[in-house]
Amino acid sequence: MHKKILAPLDGSELAEVALPYAEGLAAGLGSEITLIHVCNSEKSEDYHTHEAYIQKMAETIKQRVEAEGIKVMSAHLVGHTAEQIVDYADREDIGLIVMATHGRSGIRRWVLGDVASKVVRATNRPVALIRAEGARPDVRETGVVRKALVPLDGSKESEAIIPHIEELASRLEAEVVLLHVMAPTYFVYSIPGETIQMPFTPEDMERFKAKAEHYLETVIAALKNRGINARAEVAVGAAADEIIRLADEIQADIVAMSTHGRSGISRWAFGSTADKVLHAGNTPVLLVRAPDVSTE
What we know:
This protein is an alpha/beta fold. It has 2 domains: about 140 residues, HUPs (Rossmann fold, 3-Layer(aba) Sandwich), CATH 3.40.50.620; about 140 residues, Rossmann fold (3-Layer(aba) Sandwich), CATH 3.40.50.620. The chain is about 35% helix and about 30% strand. The protein contains 9 helices and 16 strands. It has a 10-stranded mixed β-sheet with strand order 3-2-1-4-7-16-13-8-9-12, with helices on both faces. A two-stranded antiparallel ribbon has the order 5-6. The protein has a two-stranded antiparallel sheet with strand order 10-11. Strand 5 and strand 6 form a beta hairpin. The longest helix is centred in the last third of the chain and has 24 residues.
C-alpha cells in the first residue's frame, strides 16, 4: 500500500524536516523514496542549482539508508508546484506523500493553505504533513510512529483511514488510540428562522456514549485480530479541539484521519476539522481522502 514514498523539497531546511519521517517510514514499511523538486521554468536562473540540489539530497539520503536496502531516487520537474506533485504521484503510483507544511525557496513559500493544502485537496494519495515547527529530527532512532491517534465518527468516510493505519501500526509496531468526539449540543431552528444550540440531556449523552463505545470496540476487535495494540477514548466537545487535546495528552506521534467524514451534526473535511488540527495542533497529520469523493 505504501511501497513508494514521495518527499517534495523546495531547497529549504524547513522543507527538509520531513526527510527523517520519510526515511523512518521507508525503513519500517520497506518502501522506496523519491525526492522531487519543482521549478517554475527551465529558463529560471535557479533551474540548474535546484537540479543539482535535489540530486545531492538523493545521494545524501542514499548514504544514510544504504544499510537498510532502501532505494532512493530523485526527480526535477517544471511547472506548477502542486500540480506537478499530484501528477507525478499519480503517474508513478506513489503510496504516500510526505511533506513539510512549511518551506521557503527564493521564488515561493510553501505554507499551509498553499502548496500543501492544494496537494491535499487535489490528490487521492495519502499525505503525511509534518509541521516544521516541532518536528523531531531523531525519529529514525526513537521511532517514527510509536502511537497513532485515529479520530472516527462512525461513518464509512471516516473509516477510510483504517486500512492505512492497520499497515502502519502492524509494520511499525505502533499503538493505536481511537477517538470518537460527541457534540454536547444540537442545532434547532427557532422563529423567525434563527438557529440556536440546545444541550443534549444527560440521558441522551449516556446513550450516545454507550453507542460510541460499542462502535469503537468493534474496530478495536478487528485491529487486535491483526495483532495491533489498540484502545479507545470517547470525548465531549468540538471535534478539532478534542483531537488536538488528546494528541498532546497521549503524546501521539501522528494523527491519522480521513479528509471527509460525517456525523449527525458536522462534516469533517479539509478546511474544517482536519484544517484546524493542522493549523492549531502540534502533531504530524496523516490525511487520507475518503473514496468516491470528487477532488475538483
